[in-house]
Every structure is written in C-alpha cells, then in structure tokens.
Design brief:
alpha+beta, Jelly Rolls, eight-stranded mixed beta sheet
Length: about 270
C-alpha cells in the first residue's frame, strides 16, 4: 500500500494546491496494483475550518440537512455539492470536490465526470453490539467506485481507523461480477478476498486523505467508549455502477463496462 506524508514529501506544494506529492501516473499505478493510497496530513493545514462545518452539520444546525443513515454507533449524512454550498459549507465542499481526485477517478474508472457523484460525512461512536449491522464488518461495496476519505479529526485504533487488505480489489470485483451475473443479491457481509492477518490499520492525523477502490476488502475499526470518529467522503462511480443502479441486467452490459482497466481480472 503506497503511503506518503504530504508535509514531509513536498513542504510547500500542497499548502498552495492541496494536491498529493506525487505524479498522477504513479498514483494510478499504485491504485491499480493495491487499490488504496494514503496521504498522511495532506489537508492538515486547512482541516480546522472543515472540521468546524462538520461539527455544525452533525449537531443539527442546518434544517435542510438530516441523517441519511443511522445504525448503532454510526450516523451518515449524504450531501450534494449544491446543498453544501447553499448552506454556506464551502470548506467541506471545496475539500471534497478536489480537482486532483476527480481527474484520478476519471483515469482509474475510465469515465469523464466533472465532479464527485456523492458527498457524505460520518459521525461514529461506540457500538452497543459489535455483532450488529454496520461498516465495521469486513466488506466490499456493491458498486465499483473510487472513494476519497478525509480524516476530519485525528484517527487511530481507538476511534475507528480504516482497515484495509490491499490488493484484494481484483478478486472482489470478480466476485461482484459473478454475483451480478447469477442474480445474487448483495450481501451485507460478503465473502471477502484476503487474509485477516494482512489487514492494515490506516491511522493518521486530521487532514489525512485515503483514496481507495471500494472493491478492496475494508472496514472501519470499532470506536472505543468515550471516543468519536469524524470523517468526510467523496465518491466517483464507474460507468458500470451507473448501469447497475439504473437496473441494467448483466447480459446487456458491454465488456468495457465490466472492468475499465488494462489489468486483467483473476
């Protein structure tokens, strides 16, 4: 898994442009290989303003913004760029609409989209029942998408740091296609590629950015009592995801939709 400390790698570059300290071609290569990239502290210099907006949203200060999904210990607010800007939440909007992420996602997914399809923010706490439903179970998402996750607060093992098994995206996507072709409904706890002992815990200070193919085996760690987890997301969907969400059957999907990379599926 490719990881870079943005502040150490290029001291001035990201402070002006908010871009990762490596060429896009290298990021693309790493994503195709591992399915995940980590940029420690990339947005640390600007996260305070976004964190303030995040707190105001999760505290219910905006009548037009409500919890979209709530489970034991998990709250997710699904937002759009228009809604964020209409409510004056420009720091969150600017952060999640990062042009470098849009360009990387379009290259990775073989699309030509102008902006992320979905923004969301999450506030997580301790769970009453660890065996209940939630994103703390190892999984891959039902649609092929690229996600940018931003740690809005310092995040470690105590408050739900992301856990990933790098390199599992190819096998999981193959399973996704096989299940779609067989008419099998998406399972909340799907069979995941990879070994649990190969799981990596992505800890990072506020402003750390993680980009990953949602086909990678991943989960959020459990949040310990007395701690909270604050994160924000941007999602870019593949053309395959759009077709699936529109109800297209597997038999009608062109080959180029099934897997947009030169890398062969297992």
């Amino acid at each position: 898994m490719l990881s870079a400390d943005a502040a150490q790698a290029v001291p001035d570059m990201h402070e002006v442009h908010d871009v990762p300290p490596m060429p896009q071609a290298r990021m693309l290569q790493a994503l195709r290989s591992d399915g995940v990239l980590v940029f420690e502290g990339l947005l640390a210099h600007r996260i305070a303003s976004a964190a303030d907006e995040h707190r105001r949203v999760t505290a219910g200060h905006f009548a037009g913004i409500r919890v979209s999904m709530e489970l034991d210990g998990e709250k997710i607010f699904v937002l759009g760029d228009d809604l964020l800007r209409a409510q004056g939440l420009r720091h969150l909007a600017d952060m999640l609409a990062a042009p470098w992420f849009v360009a990387l996602a379009n290259d990775y997914l073989g699309t030509a989209e102008p902006a992320p399809h979905v923004y969301s923010i999450a506030l997580d706490g301790a769970k009453q029942a660890a065996d209940g439903p939630g994103n703390h179970h190892l999984h891959w998402d039902p649609t092929l998408s690229l996600r940018m996750m931003v740690y809005v607060g310092d995040t470690d093992r105590r408050n739900g740091a992301l856990e990933v098994i790098a390199g599992t995206h190819l096998l999981n996507h193959r399973r996704r296609l096989d299940e779609w072709a067989g008419g099998i409904a998406y399972q909340p706890r799907p069979v995941c590629a990879g070994r649990l002992e190969d799981t990596e815990v992505v800890e990072g200070r506020a402003g750390t950015v993680i980009v990953f193919d949602t086909s990678v085996s991943h989960r959020r760690g459990l949040v310990a009592p007395g701690h909270t987890r604050r994160v924000a997301f941007a999602h870019m969907h593949s053309a395959l995801a759009a077709a699936q969400m529109a109800g297209m059957p597997h038999a009608q999907a062109a080959d180029h939709l099934l897997w947009p990379h030169a890398t062969a599926l297992p």
